[in-house]
Structure prediction request, 386 residues.
Amino acid sequence: MSGTSADGVDVAIVEVARGNRSDSGSSGTSSSEHGADMTARLLLHHHRAYPTQLREQIFAFRRPDGAVATPAAFLRQLATMGREISLTCAAAVNEALAAANLSSAELCAVAAHGQTLFHEPPDTVQWFDPALVAAEVGCAVVSDFRRADLAAGGQGAPLVPFADYLLFRDAGKNRVLLNLGGIANITWLPAGGSPRDVIGFDTGPANCVIDHLARQHGVAGGLDRDGAMSMRGRADFPTAFAAIRGSSFVFRPPPKSADIPEMIAMYERTRDQLGHAAMPLPDQMATASMMAALGVELALAHLPRRPDEIIASGGGVDNSRLMQEIAAATKLPVHRTDAFGVPAQAKEAIAFALLGAATLDAIPSNIPSVTGARRPVVLGSVTPRP
Prediction:
């Protein structure tokens, strides 16, 4: 998995089994519905960072003003970037296999999301070369997960609620799973619910505005590591509130999905309109954290009822300021997925392992109540083992 933060590739080596769950998920729901009997055991998690130049290219490409001079140069850059993304992914998988003392022959498949370059349903680009990864690893590859859902009229996102349901459903508690990547998204898991009861959608920005500010100001690594700068800052509530309140995305009912450029523009437009362009960087980062938290709180109004708890994962869980703002805005207990046996940085990679397993077993793994698709569909395309 490589998310919208484009920091690199997370690999999860996962053992997936069928038929090992004693609960059905809800009364009247068979254990095999929507793959509800699938279980996942994490064997190893490994992260490989993108080379600095590749990460810069990805963000330059995603800026509205980032187009290169000629169509030929544009296509050359696009092709080269796809190759580098895929080679980084393959290297990460091979490193993980070596660390786990496994060979590629012992894998059923590599499930890979690719790198999001554009997402505006019904159009999407997850840039990736599955044939190159199959050749470099020596294994079948499942990829291109969004398109089947888009073809069925859905948003093509979010897709992780399938795994959230498998991993975190509970008979007695109403839960929200919160992923804090570049974009924040939630999955609603009602107590004792079935897959048909799951709701999921993007809530707005998580790390993307903070990371954008870090890159703009030349902060090492292009991020606010552990939220250290944000913690020193003073959040400007009028800017955070006006940015969220002025966003048509935040108040639009689900299904819905967001992309990074519109979230950055939303923040900068509001900041500049209020005359705060010269705000110190720590204050801007703290304000961006508050804005993300307000987006999460407003998203809860789209749910049938308030959750009992929030369980968070993704890179944003290491940002202390962001986590504090979410707890303050929602007034709910906020836990990391680590407390439930799923490392926060590995959760999305585990999710795509489950999605890939579902593809191989011909199990539909989109959730129409989440994406808005007309019907459940089997996701992903399979590139065979070379």
The chain is about 40% helix and 20% strand. The radius of gyration is 20 Å. The longest helix spans residues 71-99. Residues 24-29 have pLDDT under 50 and may be disordered.
